[in-house]
Amino acid sequence: MSNELDPHHWVKAHADYLYAYTRARISDEELARDLVQDTFLSALEKVGSFEGRSSERTWLTAILRNKIIDQYRKKSSGLLNADVQRAEEEQADFFNSDDGHWNNEPAPKHFGIDEYDPLQSKEFDHILMKCLKKLPALWMSVFTMKHLDEEQTDTICAELKLTVSNYWVIIHRAKLNLRACLQKNWI
Amino acid sequence: MGVLSKITRNCNHATLLIEKKLITTLSLRERIFLRIHLIGCDACRLYQAQTTKIGQMIKNLFNESPGVNITLDDEVKKEMQERIEEKLNKN
Ligand SMILES: [Zn+2]
């Protein structure tokens, strides 16, 4: 059976799915709604290019995904975003500025995570989530593409227009912040 | 600062390499740096164990099935379909 498009049923058939897909990647409800609406309207302009090789839902999701990446990219265009700057300030004193050695206070200490088995329990997910929410949007986009979409490093760099060395810096800083946040908030 | 102390003191670079190693293969030079550094640095060895665990936690969190309760209001959906029909009628 070849796939066909039926715009009269798009919302009923796919809107909730597309919205949940978006919200897993973008936390802003209003923006997520707009992206779904926008996806339907752009799709109407592209119906001629639908060849029926994928399902209607897969095709719509691909259009939506491009719009989500566009949003991510907007956030990566200014590497000196205020939220990135704020997060970087938080870790300004992590290392000695002369030789790069851990400063005493922010250095890793033993805490509850050392006895915790994440594969057995999800008890501390809420603390992790709280710490993730504090990360700059761009850093979060990188995590989302890596863990939710399981994209490879070069794909993420190409789509977000990041250099590879920038990518490592982002991963490094994001993990430094997360670890510090967990150490501070673990009960 | 001697060559060796540049390696043994630089936790900033060592932790970057630890993160890189969790995702990709390090170059020979990077592997040597990290190995020498970790021999003498308890803090970075602890960092390595903790950040590996944090990576697993993030992975688990993202792989939970997304909330089934994330849905749109009927009112919003009605409006969405209306805008589609509007655009269909224009063409
Ligand atoms: Zn170290």
Structure description:
The complex is a heterodimer of chains A (187) and B (91). Chain A has helices at residues 10-25, 29-46, 56-77, 82-90, 125-133, 137-147, 153-160, 164-185. Chain A is mainly alpha-helical. Chain A folds into 2 domains: 7-76, Rna Polymerase Sigma Factor, Chain: A; 79-185, Arc Repressor Mutant, subunit A, CATH 1.10.10. In chain A, helix 6 crosses helix 8 (164-185). In chain B, helix 2 (11-21) packs across helix 3 and helix 2 (11-21) packs parallel to helix 4. Chain B is built from 5 helices and no strands. The longest helix of chain B is centred in the middle third of the chain and has 22 residues, at 42-63. Classes of the chains: A mainly alpha (187), B mainly alpha (91). At the A-B interface, helix 1, helix 2, helix 5, helix 6 and helix 8 of A face helix 1, helix 2, helix 4 and helix 5 of B.
- The low-pLDDT segments of chain B are none
Helix coverage percent of chain B: over 70%
Overall domain count of chain A: 2
Q: Could you state the order of secondary-structure elements of chain A as H and E?
A: HHHHHHHH
Helix content of chain A: 55-70%
CATH second-level architecture of the largest domain in chain A: Orthogonal Bundle
Structural class of chain B comes to mainly alpha
Gap between N and C termini of chain A: 56 Å
Short description:
The complex is a heterodimer of chains A (187) and B (91). Chain A has helices at residues 10-25, 29-46, 56-77, 82-90, 125-133, 137-147, 153-160, 164-185. Chain A is mostly helical.
Question: What is this structure's SSE topology?
Answer:
The complex is a heterodimer of chains A (187) and B (91).
Chain A: H1 10-25, H2 29-46, H3 56-77, H4 82-90, H5 125-133, H6 137-147, H7 153-160, H8 164-185
Helix pairs in contact in A: 1-2, 1-3, 2-3, 5-8, 6-8
Chain B: H1 3-9, H2 11-21, H3 28-40, H4 42-63, H5 74-90
The structure holds zinc ion.
Write a concise keyword list for the protein shown above.
heterodimer, A: 187 residues, mainly alpha, Rna Polymerase Sigma Factor, Chain: A, Arc Repressor Mutant, subunit A, 2 domains, 8 helices, B: 91 residues, 77% helix, elongated, binds zinc ion
